[in-house]
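Journal club side-thread
Mid-discussion, someone asked how the predicted structure for our own chain would compare to the paper's figures. Pasting it here so we can look after the session.
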Amino acid sequence: MTYSIQQLAQLAGVSPRTLRYYDQIGLLPAQRNAVNGYREYPAAAVDRLQLIRYFQTFGFQLAQIQDLLAQSPAEQTAALVDQRDRLQAQRTHLTALLNTLDRTLAARHGGPQMTDSEKFAAFKHQTLAENEQQFGEEARHRYGQETVTTSQQKFAALSEADYQVMQDTEAALIAQLKIVTTSQDLDSSAAHDVYRLHRQWLCFTWNNYTPARHRGLAQLYLADDRFARYYNQRVGLPNATATLAAIIDRYAV
């Protein structure tokens, strides 16, 4: 079936002006009716617009979408599968949060009381969902699906006591890292503490810690702006991540 610009705009829930713009920038080229010169869109254009709408929903900019649409069908499918995994993780988190909230409300009205571990399960799911959204793709690329899944399962199975210790460990790590980032004394006791605390924090989710893997993670911190922003923002200093990587490189032997 061939659609006019008005028909496709109505079908897709966008304005004709948007479709004209997509045509102008080559994102969604239109055909021209041989008789009147009006824009027309064949079935292939409908499929392409569906992909555009999907990727827009996932937060991609138009330039990124153009790059994706220039890739092979297999690469486009992989991108959609990745987004589906992210949505699945978000849905799992929201379901867990709703279940926990419902049980909390029920307990407040005299219903069955929750265990301490159950009270905090949703927050662990939230952490997993956030990590999956930010770092899931990169982690799978570097370490493989099995390693990532095992790490997620280990984190999800933490008792409330262990979960709290993990949070306290990271808080202590950030405090010591701020000291070393300010002083730049990598031989200090604070630098030793940073390495020890970071290793301890990793082992809450890592099954097979090795110094080599630790150093590899430090290189990822330097190479990936997302990790750099995380530690720089937590510490409040622009070179915190670089300092952490230098400490790991020195002591993970």
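Post-session note: The two ends are 65 Å apart (CA to CA).
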